[in-house]
């Protein structure tokens, strides 16, 4: 009797497990339009038969799904349809605010398990999308971790998870960094020598500003065995807002994640130059704990302007730019530490938080970066809900006004995309930026789409149901 029911259960569990796992591994194929690079040649897209009945629609979706699965798993990558294209498209994956949490000695086991699973859930999204799309660039939009109030050793431990579990990268690099940055008594406890970093920083700021080396040219990856470029942005949770950011924060970020401000120019000697600008916009405005950080940020922008760049620009930064309330989800908010702040008296009146850049600074920054009038795009994070707006540039009074739809009387339009978070609560999104050089207009065209997965429970279910199924069948064998 027991055997009879157990067998029914095992069959049911098997079917369910297979279905959920097929979904988990092929989810982008259900929405190929949003989960692929934008195809600028529209003739290749099939469309839903508009006058078809239920059966035709079903047939269309099933065919679209299976075609996509076959294309993803069984077509060789080299068979690219773009062989005749002169200029390669830019394929940039943008991942919003992973914000991974820490595990402390008093963290309950259930939260530990949750944090552990969450790492692999995020890793699954990256792995699936990377395999599917072979990006040229991967940009993580800041707030890599959930808190700036953590010791160096915890910062390292989370970096290790980020490198290994989320992004499946070689950990030997950061292990080497730890070998030369740990406390004397314990080689497991990472610590940065921020005094040394600060000396060099101030030295450069005072008289050797070219030593900041903000600029790169034609970098396609940071190491030979990688075929894409991986970029980490600073978020308020990684280095703090300017009222909180210390030398310690900047030292450990730059030691493990690279520069917070830089640009890479591509193909400057051709008719199709473009550049990626990475900006730490947390340090644009004060009052700051270390006012010299603000000076350094503006020095970066000054040097950027001095490049007299003539191409198209993608700007990637964390905090969104100024816009009227109601255009996006986060409300407009700036906080300062009070006049009397007993916990940390030295922070009185400093900038405590901001969820947008001020209007004035927004105008200035856009003028500096997009002043050449070439098409471009702004990618930001911070607002986990995501958002898309257009900045309309008015030359008469030099302002950039955000709206949902482009205003016809503006000379120039700039799209700002707030990349919806990749966290489970927001359905595990991947942002896809496609850049295509239009040979007729001789301009770059940029398009953004968002590819969601599911809340983390679906991923969990695919693993747990597999284990239960296995248990059920093994019990049956024993009985
Ligand atoms: C980081 O990991 C190391 C090695 O596992 C451990 O010794 C150390 O205590 C961890 N740091 C924190 C802050 O938990
Ligand atoms: C971003 O961080 C990862 C992990 O430490 C590292 O492998 C990668 O090289 C970093 N990117 C840059 C531009 O330094
Ligand atoms: C950009 O133009 C300015 C002013 O004409 C010039 O001084 C500067 O050297 C130029 N920068 C580069 C990188 O060519």
Bound molecules: 2-acetamido-2-deoxy-beta-D-glucopyranose
Beta-strand portion reads: 15-25%
Which class do the helix and strand fractions yield?
alpha/beta
Strand arrangement, major sheet: 3-5-6-7-10-13-11-12
Report the average pLDDT across residues. Answer: 94
Written description of the protein model:
The protein is 36% helix and 17% strand. It has 479 residues and is of the alpha/beta class. An 8-stranded mixed beta sheet has the order 3-5-6-7-10-13-11-12. Strands 4-2-1-14-15 form a 5-stranded mixed beta sheet, with helices on one face. The protein starts with a helix and ends with a helix. One 2-acetamido-2-deoxy-beta-D-glucopyranose is lined by residues 306-308.
Brief descriptors of the model:
479 residues, alpha/beta, binds 2-acetamido-2-deoxy-beta-D-glucopyranose, 11 helices, five-stranded mixed sheet, globular, PGAP5/Cdc1/Ted1, 17% strand, membrane, single chain, eight-stranded mixed sheet
């Amino acid at each position: 009797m027991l055997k009879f029911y157990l067998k029914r259960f095992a069959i049911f569990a098997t079917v369910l497990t297979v279905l959920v796992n097929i979904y988990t591994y092929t989810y982008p194929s259900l929405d190929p339009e949003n989960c692929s690079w934008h195809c600028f040649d529209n003739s290749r897209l099939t469309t839903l038969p508009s006058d078809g009945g239920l059966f035709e629609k079903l047939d269309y979706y099933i065919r679209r799904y299976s075609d996509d699965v076959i294309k993803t798993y069984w077509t060789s990558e080299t068979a690219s349809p773009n062989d005749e294209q002169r200029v390669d498209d830019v394929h940039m994956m943008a991942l919003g605010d992973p914000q991974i949490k820490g595990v402390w000695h008093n963290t309950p086991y259930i939260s530990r398990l949750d944090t552990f699973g969450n790492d692999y859930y995020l890793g699954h999204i990256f792995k699936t999308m990377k395999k599917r799309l072979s990006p040229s660039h991967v940009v993580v939009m800041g707030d890599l971790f959930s808190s700036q109030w953590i010791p160096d050793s915890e910062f390292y431990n989370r970096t290790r998870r980020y490198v290994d579990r989320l992004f499946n990268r070689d950990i030997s690099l950061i292990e080497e960094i730890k070998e030369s940055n740990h406390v004397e008594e314990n080689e497991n406890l990472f610590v940065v020598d921020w005094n040394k970093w600060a000396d060099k920083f101030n030295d450069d700021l005072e008289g050797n500003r070219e030593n900041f080396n903000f600029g790169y040219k034609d970098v396609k990856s940071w190491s030979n065995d990688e075929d894409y470029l991986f970029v980490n942005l600073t978020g308020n949770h990684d280095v703090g807002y300017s009222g909180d950011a210390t030398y310690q924060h900047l030292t450990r970020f730059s030691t493990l994640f690279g520069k917070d401000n830089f640009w890479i120019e591509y193909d400057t000697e051709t008719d199709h130059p473009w550049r990626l600008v990475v900006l730490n916009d947390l340090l644009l405005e004060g009052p700051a704990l270390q006012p010299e950080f603000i000076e350094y940020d503006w020095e970066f922008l000054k040097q950027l302007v001095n490049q007299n760049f003539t191409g198209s620009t993608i700007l990637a930064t964390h905090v969104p730019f100024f816009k009227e309330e109601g255009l996006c989800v986060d409300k407009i908010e700036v906080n300062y530490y009070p006049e009397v702040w007993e916990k940390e008296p030295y922070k009185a009146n400093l900038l405590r938080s901001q969820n947008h850049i001020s209007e004035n600074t927004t105008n200035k920054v856009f003028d500096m970066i997009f002043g050449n009038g070439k098409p471009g795009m702004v990618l930001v994070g911070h607002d986990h809900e995501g958002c898309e707006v257009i900045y309309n540039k008015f030359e008469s009074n030099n302002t950039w006004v955000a709206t949902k739809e482009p205003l016809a009387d503006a000379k120039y339009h700039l799209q700002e995309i707030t990349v919806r978070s990749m966290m489970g609560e927001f359905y595990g999104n991947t942002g896809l930026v496609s850049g295509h050089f239009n040979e007729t207009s001789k301009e770059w065209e940029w398009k953004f789409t968002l590819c969601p997965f599911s809340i983390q429970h679906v991923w969990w279910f695919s693993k747990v149901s597999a284990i239960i199924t296995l248990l059920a069948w093994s019990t049956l064998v024993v009985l």
